[in-house]
Design goal:
Number of domains: 1
Order of helices and strands: HHHEHEHEHHEHEHHEE
Protein name: catechol O-methyltransferase
Family: Belongs to the class I-like SAM-binding methyltransferase superfamily. Cation-dependent O-methyltransferase family.
Strand content: 15-25%
Pfam family, one: Methyltransf_3
Largest sheet: 7 strands, mixed
Structural class: alpha/beta
CATH class: Alpha Beta
InterPro entries: SAM-dependent_MTases_sf, SAM_O-MeTrfase
GO molecular function: catechol O-methyltransferase activity
Oligomer: single chain
Number of helices: 10
């Protein structure tokens, strides 16, 4: 995505949403993506699956792989108490800067910690960096080919514990078949597929996998 494209997105959101109102910012991002340009957010449709998962788990610690422009981390912050730790990892500095501006506009910048790095480099440092033994809730929505390797890394460094809920987007399109196969056939997890459609497109089949460590 070009710098100009990010600027167009950011300018639209800042102009058309209410400062300090997370719901207004979320709705305006969805409006932009439906009417101007579809972006790689989880979106309003699958976002409801994410909302329901968060409400069922009520996590105190949240990790997101793939910040992009800040939509899903903002959506999660809007669902959770102010003392919830939300950590999100983003490799692209321009995307991270846009996300930070979105969070500031929505009034949640102090509640979301953006880690600028590759996920495989950041994950081993998270426990010490944020003083956590593990995460209650993990949302995976970055490079699909990295879903499985990063998931195994999270397991290996102990950031997934009994009761950790893992929500993974884009299971069908563009798809993460190796991740889906691993988590569905692993006796340590119960896993449920929630069918939907691709973000900001009512015609392409997609869905979200919700898994819980036993």
């Amino acid at each position: 995505m070009s710098r100009d494209f990010r600027e167009a997105f950011l300018n639209y959101v800042l102009k058309n949403s209410h400062s300090g109102d997370a719901s207004s910012v979320i709705n305006t991002i969805d409006e932009y993506c439906w009417t101007q340009q579809a972006l790689m957010n989880i979106g309003d449709g699958k976002g409801k699956i994410l909302d329901a998962a968060l409400q069922s788990r009520q996590p105190k610690t949240v990790l997101e792989l793939g910040t992009f422009l800040g939509y899903s981390s903002l959506r999660m912050a809007s669902q959770l108490p102010e003392d919830t730790l939300i950590v999100t990892i983003e490799v692209n500095p321009e995307s991270a800067a846009t996300a930070r501006r979105i969070h500031e506009h929505a009034g949640v910048e102090n509640r979301i910690q953006i880690v600028l790095d590759q996920t495989d480099r950041a994950i081993p440092r998270l426990s010490k960096q944020f003083n956590v033994d593990s995460f209650d809730f993990i949302f995976i929505d970055h490079h699909k080919e990295a879903y499985l390797s990063d998931f195994k890394l999270l397991e290996n460094v102990g950031l997934i514990k009994r009761g950790t809920m893992i929500v993974a987007d884009n299971i069908i399109y563009p798809g993460a078949p190796d991740y889906a196969n691993y988590v569905r056939n692993n006796p340590h997890y119960t896993s449920t597929f929630h069918e939907s459609t691709l973000e900001y497109d009512k015609n392409i089949r997609d869905g979200v996998e919700v898994s819980i460590r036993q």
